[in-house]
Structures are given as C-alpha cells and as structure tokens.
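Work Package 3 (structural annotation) set out to generate three-dimensional models for the target panel prioritized at the project kickoff. During this period the team completed the workflow that converts sequence records into discrete structure tokens, so that structures can be stored uniformly alongside our sequence database. As a representative example, we reproduce one entry of 193 residues exactly as it appears in the project archive.
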Amino acid sequence: MTRAKPRRGYTIVELLIVIAVIGILTAILLAVVTRAKGKGRQITCTNNLAQFYKYIIYYVDEHDGVLPKIEGIGWLDDLTLRCTIPLSADILKCPSDKDPMPVSVYEVSYASNCTFSKKPLTSIERPSNTALFADIGRNAAGNPKFCSRFAWVFKRYAAFRHFDRMNTMFADGSIRSLNEDEIHDDMFRPPPR
C-alpha cells in the first residue's frame, strides 16, 4: 500500500503576495476607469457646446445673421423665446459641474463673451480665435448672468473642470479644451484697428 503524499497548502507569504498583486492591479484599474469617466464627461461637455452652437446658428439664420442677446438678465429667455425650435436644457449644463448657475428655468455651466451680443456673426473678424462661450464657475457675487469681454475675468472665474482645462466654443463652431496659459484677451474682443 502506497502512502498518499500530504497535500501542501499555500503559505501565508504566498497568499499575502497574491493579495498584494490583486490590490495593485485593482488600484491601477480604478485609476484608469476614473480617468475614462472624466474623459467621457469632457466629451459630453464638448458635445453640449457643439449642440448649443448649432442652436445659436439656427437663431442667427432666423434673425438676419445677427447673434442673440447674450448678456444681462434674461439673455437665455430672450434667446429661447425668439427662436422657433425648443432648447434642450441638458445642453446648457456640463456633466462635471456640481454647482451650475441658475438662469431662468435652466441650470447653466457656461458663460458668454458679450462683446458680440446682438452683432452680426459676420462681424467677427477672426472667428476661429474668438471665444463665444466657455466653462465657467460662479463669480464672486454668485452672479448667474455672467459674461465678460476680458480674458482675466475668464481666467479668474473659469472652471477648469476637465483635467485642468476648460472647454471653449469659438465663433467658427470649433470647440477646444484650453488651459489657463492658452487664454488671452484677443479671444474676447475685436482686434484693434
């Protein structure tokens, strides 16, 4: 009769090594998933701005090439009441914005460049370098009707929600993700003559 060899189990060291490897792999995977979710929110924000640009262009087409009033109290009401298609409230809010500004019945995550309010779209000389809307947080007074003509104001209240970058809609319809160093005054006002 042969004697069966005793089954050798795992040592405590081997089990701890396996647990440590699983923990490291989980941490790496969690970081990757978190970054992917953030990138997904950034892409949704970019898409929201693209949809809002299309809405503004629809408005411009209906109003002889003139941009809507994008400043002061009630600018959003003025825009939505004077355009024949409805505005989806979802496109005005960045999914990464935890504290959107209340504007009328909407929650808004973007601020406008009011330099070109009620001006013809064709009056913008450098549309690919002229910002119309950008990710913004609340200003010091918590003002939800915020707009500016100056880069320093946008830098001060900008919401760099997307990996230290803010999404910006330009007058040509392009949307770019900018860091603080890429924001300059020429983006918010007409060039000097």
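The helical segments are 12-62, 75-81, 151-157.
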